[in-house]
Design brief:
The protein is α/β, with parallel strands linked by helices and 298 residues long. It folds into two domains: 3-21 and 253-294; 29-248, ATP synthase, F1 complex, gamma subunit (Pyruvate Kinase, Chain: A, domain 1, 3-Layer(aba) Sandwich), CATH 3.40.1380.10. Helix content is 64%, strand content 12%. The chain has a five-stranded mixed sheet with strand order 3-2-1-4-5, with helices on both faces. Helix 3 crosses helix 4 (121-129) and helix 5 packs across helix 7. It is elongated. The two termini are 31 Å apart.
Length: 298
Amino acid sequence: MSDTSAILLSKIDGTEKLKSVVRTMKAIAASSIGSYENAVLALIDYERTVTLGLAAVLRQNVVKPTPHIEQASSNAVGTIGAIVFGSDQGLVGQFNEIMTTFVIDTLDQLPGEKKIWVVGERLFSRLAEAKLALVGPYPVPGSVSAISQLVGRIQIDGDTCRLNNEFAQMYLFHNQPQAASQYQPVCQQLLPLDTRWQRALATTPWPTKALPEPVGEKETLLSDLIREYLFISVYKACAESLASENASRLAAMQRAEKSINELSDQLHRTFSRLRQNAIDEELFDVIAGFNALTGFKI
């Protein structure tokens, strides 16, 4: 076997191993997408319960504004906070680049100073290049069970900032999954919860004819429900971001698999051609030797 053929065989073996790795990563990404999408679906009933609870309390129209709502009037203009979800790992295509551009373009349209809490080291480094004031990076959860820990940590840090009256507004940025393994960046205003938001909830229709009556201190109940509402919003954004990340990784692996298959086919064709050429040369040598020994002439 020639050196060229040996090199080709080595390359073919390498592409087969790489193809196996890509198939495994595709399977993991597809499985992860399902897990995170199921986590978002599991929130639907709980989110509706919290929303109805808020509607029941706000319908009474006798509660005092909570600190989340007071912020709207006391800090109409001031520092703008943002929670941005990105990725810690590679092989996700333009996932972090798209989010970086979207965050910068969106915040540029808002007045005041900005302070960004970043989830994901890779996104953190890209936003740092834009000379923005950053907090973090927070680690990206590696599973559904780890999302609650991250959201809890963000809530604790957010409560500290709220008590210090640091932010006038708080926004939430994340990639949201779309059909066919696609995604798009979205932005949601998390705080303050203004009077328009309260009126919309207060007019939410109750599912039964018997109207509810809140039990206990209404201000405390409202504060607890708002805290759950914010937890759901951040949790949902994180889960959707992780689903989008794995969708991006799945699409990248599909493109990689296509390229590897094309390269593998090309290497096999080249090896087959070299092998056939070597066989032809050996046959010609045998025929030439036979002709030389027998004196046979064509």
